[in-house]
Design brief:
single chain, Oxid_FAD_bind_N, 4 domains, FAD, Uridine Diphospho-n-acetylenolpyruvylglucosamine Reductase, domain 2, FAD-linked_Oxase-like_C, 18 strands, FAD-bd_PCMH, 18 helices, Alpha-Beta Plaits, Uridine Diphospho-n-acetylenolpyruvylglucosamine Reductase, domain 3, oxidoreductase, alpha+beta, seven-stranded antiparallel sheet
């Protein structure tokens, strides 16, 4: 995994850059000590590490604007960073770049029940938004497993999802507005408290842009009334294929559960040991299906889902009888990633997405790949929308195992694309999947993405080295083919 070579000229100016940053962010907002910088050397993808040139922790939009304007004028690279929980290396620092931490932007600015929205700074954690409105009967729907720690700004950057994204959508479906600072220092606002904005869908461009287009300093999200009833049914299966057929059957019957999650036997054992959620240990796969809405509807659908499950060979069924038991059933799945840490010294989390009907075939092929590479894999995934999270288990202290895990993960992601899926469902591209972009996108697709990047960040200073396997200069993107001394389409105004 290669990153851009550090600019020795920028590194030589480190003292001047530190002085300039301290002039903008007083007090302890500029970190230069090597031991303290190590806190920021990676995000949740621990396989890759790099000390940043310095870390700057602003507290206001005005400070962010001044920082970016200085970096734009002086050719200094900037890597935006939220809570550091990302799993694709999107916040991997640069030796010649400033890591811009947004952890001090941690306030909820407004709760507007009339318009059913919350305005928050980007460092507010996902769970804090729900906690702030829970007492009034509302919640924020996207709920990543890391919701206790991940920031809402990071959720926007990666277009995070979570257990309930099947019915209620990912971040992009629940985002109303952002305030964003461009690399030039200009502050722009997109969207508002209304559902949809007119004109170009710039909100859609910014959501999932992974810190490549601007730095988000304020977020407005919609909140929803809590459903009148929500119950969970646990379904145990003798094989993962049977569980996959059950998923297809439920969706094929026109049922859209509030959430539908699946895990295989290694993951089940780890979760049950970690949390004790009441999962069966004598099954090969468990499907968690949550149904919400009016009580009479939920009761009816529970019976329909159980019937579908029995038809494909379900061997165990258990329905939650109260809110405490519902939470208990979810506790294991919500702790999936730390639970799997008990199985191996290291693991790598994948994030491919596939068409639902391909689930049995992909699970079979992943088992074959596991045997081929000699590495175990534990599977947890958002079964309803086909977002897979295979956890490849390895030991980085054994020579060559990390490289095998990387190759195994790349093959899983290529498999996802091969069957009609995509490289990422919610974790983003970052450095983890950057070099696989060519497996999914054509050269023309890549050029168009580069042009979009250039429109926002003409000098390529925001989070460079991420996403594009071949980095183009913006000047190259703007070249025109001139034939016989004539510009093409001379009637079109040029800027």
């Amino acid at each position: 995994m290669k990153m851009p070579l550090p600019d020795d000229g920028v590194i030589a100016r480190r003292g001047d850059i530190v002085a300039a940053m301290r002039g903008i962010v007083p007090g302890e907002g500029v970190i230069v000590d090597e031991e303290e910088l190590k806190v920021f050397e990676c995000d949740g993808l621990l396989a890759y590490r790099q000390l940043p040139l310095i870390v700057v922790l602003p507290e206001t939009t005005e400070q962010v604007s001044r920082i970016l304007r200085y970096c734009h004028e002086n050719g200094v690279k900037v890597v935006p960073r939220g809570a550091g929980t990302g799993l694709s290396g999107g916040a991997l620092p640069l030796a010649d770049g400033i890591t811009l931490g947004l952890g001090k932007f941690n306030k909820i600015l407004e709760i507007d029940f009339y318009n059913r929205c919350v305005v928050a700074q980007p460092g507010v954690t996902n769970l804090s938004i729900t906690s702030a409105v829970d007492g009034d009967g509302y919640y924020y729907a996207p709920d990543p497993s890391s919701r206790i720690a991940c920031s809402i700004g990071g959720n926007v950057a990666e277009n995070a999802g979570g257990m309930h994204c099947l019915k209620y959508g990912l971040t992009t479906n629940n985002l109303l507005a952002v305030e964003m600072v461009l690399m030039s220092g200009e502050v722009v606002r997109l969207g508002g408290k209304h559902l949809d904005s007119g004109g170009l869908d710039l909100m859609g461009v910014v959501t999932g842009s992974e810190g490549l287009l601007g730095v988000i300093t304020e977020v407005t999200v919609r909140i929803l009334p809590k459903p009148t009833s929500a119950r969970v049914v646990l379904l145990g299966f003798p094989s993962s294929n049977a569980g996959g057929r059950c998923v297809a059957g439920i969706i094929g019957a026109g049922i859209i559960p509030g959430a539908m999650e699946m895990m295989d036997k290694p993951a089940i054992a780890a979760m049950e040991q970690f949390v004790s959620s009441g999962y069966w240990l004598d099954v090969e796969a468990i499907l968690i299906v949550e149904l919400d809405g009016p009580e009479v509807e939920v009761d009816h659908l529970l019976g329909v889902v159980e019937g579908i499950a029995r038809d494909v060979g379900c061997s165990h069924v258990r329905v939650s009888e109260g809110e405490d038991e519902r939470r208990q059933f979810w506790a294991g799945r919500m702790s999936a990633f730390p639970s799997v840490g008990r199985l191996s010294p290291d693991y790598m989390t994948m994030d491919g997405t596939i068409p639902r009907h391909q689930l049995p075939a992909v699970l079979t092929r992943m088992a074959q790949l596991s045997d081929s590479y000699g590495l175990r894999v534990a599977n947890v995934f958002h079964a309803g929308d086909g977002n897979l999270h295979p956890l490849i288990l390895y030991d980085a202290n054994r020579p060559g195992e990390m490289e095998k895990a990387e190759a195994f993960g790349a093959d899983i992601l290529r498999l996802c694309v091969e069957v009609g899926g995509v490289l990422s469902g919610e974790h983003g591209i970052g450095v983890e999947k950057r070099d696989l972009m060519g497996d999914m996108f054509t050269d023309q697709d890549m050029v168009q993405q580069s042009r979009l990047k250039c429109a926002f960040d003409g000098h390529g200073l925001l989070n460079p080295g991420k996403v594009f396997p071949i980095l183009h200069r913006c000047a190259e993107m703007g070249k025109l083919n001139v034939r016989d001394g004539r510009l093409p389409f001379p009637d079109i105004p040029r800027f």
